[in-house]
Amino acid sequence: AQSVTQPDIHITVSEGASLELRCNYSYGATPYLFWYVQSPGQGLQLLLKYFSGDTLVQGIKGFEAEFKRSQSSFNLRKPSVHWSDAAEYFCAVSNFGNEKLTFGTGTRLTIIP
Amino acid sequence: DVKVTQSSRYLVKRTGEKVFLECVQDMDHENMFWYRQDPGLGLRLIYFSYDVKMKEKGDIPEGYSVSREKKERFSLILESASTNQTSMYLCASSSRVTEAFFGQGTRLTVV
């Protein structure tokens, strides 16, 4: 069965600093990978996704993620965070495109001035 | 804009009640999903549906059922609510070419 691991439960970053959120997946075939963000009291919003092709994926709000098959990873990055990036971030995998997703446990991001 | 609408943001129900959570999407998506979100556990799939009148169990279906009589509507049913079903419930829809869009969530408290 597929699974997703987000090893960091909570990360605190200074505003303007760079950010990397880790995601490792376990899946036998080529995975379809997603990063979602959830602001307090809100539903989930898609940041970016990887299906195939270029392993560096650009998303909304200045985020990017890199698929590394050899490391079974899909880490999310942003060069300079803003206070509005404070939220919970979820990595997810599916075995076929936009079908059912398996989520990680999430990483809560706190931004300090 | 894709819209996934959940009928209630907050619900308080009593133990043993039958509870209906409703979800409607307006983008003609084939796929609809119900997830449960709990702190430290992320989102877990309860049930999903790839077509009208079709349903499949997810990872945690016990204590739940679903109904999809129309393409745009997917209902989650708690047959006899229990306190361990207190949680945030998220509905989502997707299509073959469109990623999953989520509703705002329903925070259910069972007392």
Secondary structure layout plus pairing:
The complex is a heterodimer of chains A (113) and B (111).
Chain A: E1 3-5, E2 10-14, E3 19-21, E4 24-26, E5 32-38, E6 44-50, E7 56-58, E8 64-68, E9 73-78, E10 87-94, E11 102-103, E12 107-112
Parallel strand pairs in A: 2-12
Antiparallel strand pairs in A: 1-4, 3-9, 5-6, 5-10, 7-8, 8-9, 10-11, 10-12
Chain B: E1 4-6, E2 10-13, E3 19-25, E4 31-38, E5 42-49, E6 56-57, E7 64-70, E8 73-78, E9 87-94, E10 101-102, E11 106-110
Parallel strand pairs in B: 2-11
Antiparallel strand pairs in B: 1-3, 3-8, 4-5, 4-9, 5-6, 7-8, 9-10, 9-11
Alpha-carbon distance between the two ends of chain A? 41 Å
Q: Runs of chain A with pLDDT <50, length 5+?
A: none
Oligomer: heterodimer
Tell me the major beta sheet of chain B: 7 strands, mixed
Into which percent range does the helicity of residues of chain B fall?
Answer: under 10%
Largest interface: pair, residues per side: A-B, 23 and 27 residues
Order of helices and strands of chain B: EEEEEEEEEEE
* Integer average pLDDT of chain B: 95
CA-CA gap between termini of chain B: 36 Å
Number of extended strands of chain A: 12
Total beta strand runs of chain B: 11
Q: What is the arithmetic mean of pLDDT of chain A?
A: 93
Please work out how many helical segments of chain A DSSP would assign: 0
Q: Which overall shape of chain A is indicated by the principal axes computed on the Cα atoms?
A: globular
Query: How would a crystallographer describe the biggest sheet of chain A?
Result: 6 strands, mixed
* Helical residue percent band of chain A: under 10%
SSE topology string of chain A:
EEEEEEEEEEEE
Q: What percentage of the residues of chain A does DSSP assign to strands (E)?
A: over 45%
Structural class of chain A: mainly beta
* Structural shape of chain B: globular
Number of helices of chain B: 0
